[in-house]
């Protein structure tokens, strides 16, 4: 197990991609703190699966879009496991609205959770690793939309683009601490958020036509790459985005 003896925190890990990552890190031997905002049932179910693997775990409620919550989350994760070696910034939200109609409230919510939450969780994590004089791993779950325009989702694309530049800057700044910082950029992944898409052939078929591999990704596809970046196999990888999209990014076109 490549992550035996390591402790990880995965934000937004009560369902979907975050849940898949938390379970994969546990399968690789890590003890994992699960974070949720509202879905305690999903978080508890994730923790139960992790315990069945023989790993330590805890569920911590926090809204990473609130700076005080983001900082508290890292502190409580450290308290639960004794230390943290790996931070996966997965939590994110999106709002579907045209640019002329997006509300100030929705704009700030998307930026706060998707970008600012990752910023302040990483800051607290880096301070912890500096204090214990050890290296670490920061892995941001970004999106193909750190590169690819997505009409009607401008704040989301702005936040993911911000994660790309945050990652590049921090990879340089935190390297002297032995902390690597990388992004994983999923494309179209089959999660509970996509229920409407999956049940409507008129929406699904045009999307699949843009994916050379002709299928949606699974949370496990993203989780495997994340586990690799968290492991010693990725010791010399930093400031990189690994795209997990079946070829979507360079084959996409608006219909």
Describe the protein.
This protein is an alpha/beta fold and 255 residues long. It has a single domain (7-244), classed as NAD(P)-binding Rossmann-like Domain (Rossmann fold). The chain has helices spanning 16-27, 40-52, 67-81, 104-131, 154-173, 195-198, 201-209, 219-230; strands spanning 7-10, 31-36, 57-61, 86-89, 136-141, 179-186, 241-244.
Number of domains: 1
CATH third-level topology: Rossmann fold
From the helix content, strand content and strand pairing, which structural class follows?
alpha/beta
Helical content stands at 40-55%
Oligomer class: single chain
The CATH homologous superfamily corresponds to: NAD(P)-binding Rossmann-like Domain
What is the average of the pLDDT values?
Answer: 96
User: From N to C, what is the helix and strand string?
Assistant: EHEHEHEHEHEHHHE
Cα distance spanning the termini: 45 Å
CATH architecture annotation:
3-Layer(aba) Sandwich
* Alpha carbon gyration radius: 17 Å
CATH class: Alpha Beta
Proportion of strand residues = 5-15%
Total of DSSP H or I helical runs spanning 4+ residues: 8
| Largest beta-sheet details | 7 strands, parallel
Strand order of the largest sheet: 3-2-1-4-5-6-7
Number of strands: 7
Shape: globular
Are there runs of 5+ residues with pLDDT below 50, and where?
Answer: none
């Amino acid at each position: 197990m490549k992550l035996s003896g390591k402790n990880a925190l995965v934000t937004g890990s009560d369902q979907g991609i975050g849940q898949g990552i938390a379970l994969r890190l546990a399968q690789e031997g890590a003890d994992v703190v699960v974070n949720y905002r509202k879905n305690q049932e999903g978080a508890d179910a994730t923790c139960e699966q992790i315990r069945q693997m023989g790993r330590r775990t805890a569920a911590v409620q926090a809204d990473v879009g609130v700076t005080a919550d983001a900082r508290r989350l890292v502190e409580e994760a450290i308290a639960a496991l004794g230390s943290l070696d790996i931070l996966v910034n997965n939590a994110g939200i999106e709002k579907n609205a045209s640019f002329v109609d997006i509300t100030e409230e929705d704009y700030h919510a998307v930026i706060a959770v998707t970008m600012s939450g990752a910023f302040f969780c990483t800051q607290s994590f880096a301070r912890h690793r500096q204090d214990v004089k050890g290296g670490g791993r920061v892995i941001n779950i970004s999106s193909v939309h750190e590169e690819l325009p997505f009409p009607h989702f401008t704040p989301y694309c702005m936040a993911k683009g911000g994660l790309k530049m945050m990652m590049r800057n921090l990879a340089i700044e935190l390297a002297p601490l032995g902390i690597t910082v990388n992004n994983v950029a999923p494309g179209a992944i089959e999660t509970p958020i996509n229920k409407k898409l999956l049940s409507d052939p008129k929406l699904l078929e045009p999307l699949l036509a843009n994916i050379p591999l002709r299928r949606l990704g699974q949370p496990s596809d993203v989780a495997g790459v994340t586990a690799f970046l968290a492991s010693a196999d990725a010791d010399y990888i930093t400031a990189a985005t690994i795209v997990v999209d079946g070829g979507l990014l360079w084959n996409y076109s608006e219909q």
